[in-house]
Specification:
76% helix, 12 helices, mainly alpha
Length: 294
């Protein structure tokens, strides 16, 4: 099962790299669609075929594969709170990696500043929260489930990280991917990851649109100043994050039924040729071109 899932995600990586480029040229250059509309359509055309292919090839029910179960309001609030309290730690990763590469997310947000807030929210918050969660906390967790809950969590987070195709995003995407996968495993509901994913991306959108040109002229903090500032935020948020995690674990002590605990079944080979090709794609097309020394 793990071998097939690696092969599937290799296909996903290649389709995302080649297919999205071709579709973008078709939608914007050939059909001359507005960039906002093109970005919305592009995500539908890229993600939906991948999700359908997984369900059809694995012959599984949509509900089982994507953990489409209701999430009670208490768990929803806990998941949102945990995601919010994790934001300073994401910022710390951004600060620590800033000497290696520019903040590509900030640059992408700047390119979308001419778009309306609604368009930005739909493209950056709504669609990724739905499609990426269905792909990684749905298909990936299901595909790697034969490895056991812990390894399935790590593999889904790793694939999620590498698909972002840059080192800075990959590091915090791995952290968030592991947290999201854990939430889905414990609650048995994909909405435990969709909601916090939406919250994090939506907050980034609002922050980007709220920044005025005058604010952009303010003198930037030095690396040391940023490190101290974000470090203090981490210290402030850490007790709240720990408390929310404790409450979450108390409410959800057992693994979700769809993802059973590790068994003594024969071990599957994780690091197949497909896996190493994905790693090579990530390094050569995602990491190396974006480093400052280039």
């Amino acid at each position: 099962m793990a071998r097939r899932t690696n092969q599937y995600f290799l296909f996903v990586f290649l389709f995302f790299m080649l297919g999205s480029t071709i579709l973008e040229l078709l939608l914007i250059n050939f059909l001359a669609l507005p960039s906002d509309l093109a970005n919305i359509i592009l995500q539908f055309l890229v993600f939906i075929p991948m999700l359908v292919i997984y369900v059809k090839t694995e012959k599984v029910s949509v509900k089982e594969c994507f953990s489409l179960r209701p999430l009670n309001w208490k768990n929803a609030l806990l998941c949102l709170g945990i995601a919010y309290c994790a934001l300073p730690f994401i910022s710390m990763i951004v600060v620590l990696t800033s000497p290696l590469q520019p903040n590509l997310v900030e640059q992408a947000m700047g390119e979308l500043n001419d778009s309306s807030l609604f368009s930005m929210l739909f493209v950056i918050a709504v669609q990724p929260a739905v499609f990426e969660e269905l792909l990684f906390r749905g298909a990936a967790l299901h595909g790697y489930r034969s490895l056991g809950a812990k390894k399935a969590l790590l593999m889904s987070a790793l694939m999620f990280a590498m698909l972002h195709m840059n080192l800075q995003q990959a590091l915090y995407a791995f952290l968030l991917g592991a947290i999201f996968a854990f939430m889905v495993q414990r609650t048995g509901s994909i909405f435990a990851s969709m909601l916090p994913h939406f919250l994090i991306n939506a907050l980034n959108c609002v922050a980007a649109t709220a920044q005025t040109p005058q604010q952009g002229v303010v003198e930037e903090l030095s690396f040391a100043q940023e490190l101290v500032s974000v470090g203090l935020q981490c210290l402030v948020f850490l007790p709240f994050l720990a408390l929310l995690m404790y409450l979450f674990l108390r409410r959800n002590p057992a693994p979700a039924p769809a993802l059973p605990a590790d068994t003594d079944a024969p071990k599957e080979k994780i690091f197949t040729a497909s896996f190493w090709i994905i790693v090579a794609i990530f390094i050569f097309f995602g990491v190396l071109p974006n480093l400052y020394w280039n």
